[in-house]
Design brief:
Distance between the termini: 14 Å
Strand content: 25-35%
Oligomer: single chain
Number of strands: 9
Structural class: alpha/beta
Bound molecules: guanosine-5'-monophosphate, magnesium ion
Shape: globular
Number of helices: 4
Largest sheet: 6 strands, mixed
Amino acid sequence: MKILLSESQLQAGIVDLAGRLRARYEQRPITIVAIMTGSLVFLADLIRRLDMPLHISLIQASSYRGGTTSGDLSLSSTMMLDITGRDCLLLDDIFDTGKTLSRILDWMWQQQPASVTTAVLLNKVGQSRVAVRPDYSVFDIPNEFVVGYGLDYDDLYRNLPYVGVMEAEDLRQHASGR
Ligand code: 5GP
Ligand code: MG
């Protein structure tokens, strides 16, 4: 595995983002809408650096079923709170084509929240296919398929404490079921 962002780089980035969000919202209550499952670790680390009253709402989006190419996006909202009139912060692990964020934003606005701000951990530079851009992105990364810190390959590797790029050897080990 080639390490792209180490544990300490990730933590420093989260501290920086938390500082900006604290300055933006101060003690106003917010509802964090986190896109599962990729933003799970990002969510867990970020919320412990925030001190305003906050609600956590989860939405499931799946677009990479067992591979590295974009498929159809399916949404499941059974763990969503009512966001009507709320100041929302939409979180995702990575902004690639932007279709996931854009589609979920459209869906959120239909429920008439007071505001929506977007934050992503990773931004794949130059890949966007949509008009919207995240309000906050912690790290710009090149166009490589990354895993770890919540991000998966075939539903594995989410527990790696760093963000890495799988190399030929990792893909070979994965294929052999190790
Ligand atoms: P988009 O809709 O912006 O093209 O893709 C966003 C979603 O695709 C992310 O929420 C993430 O689940 C998945 N994704 C995009 N790029 C990567 C990547 O490099 N690695 C992993 N594991 N998932 C990715
Ligand atoms: Mg995702």
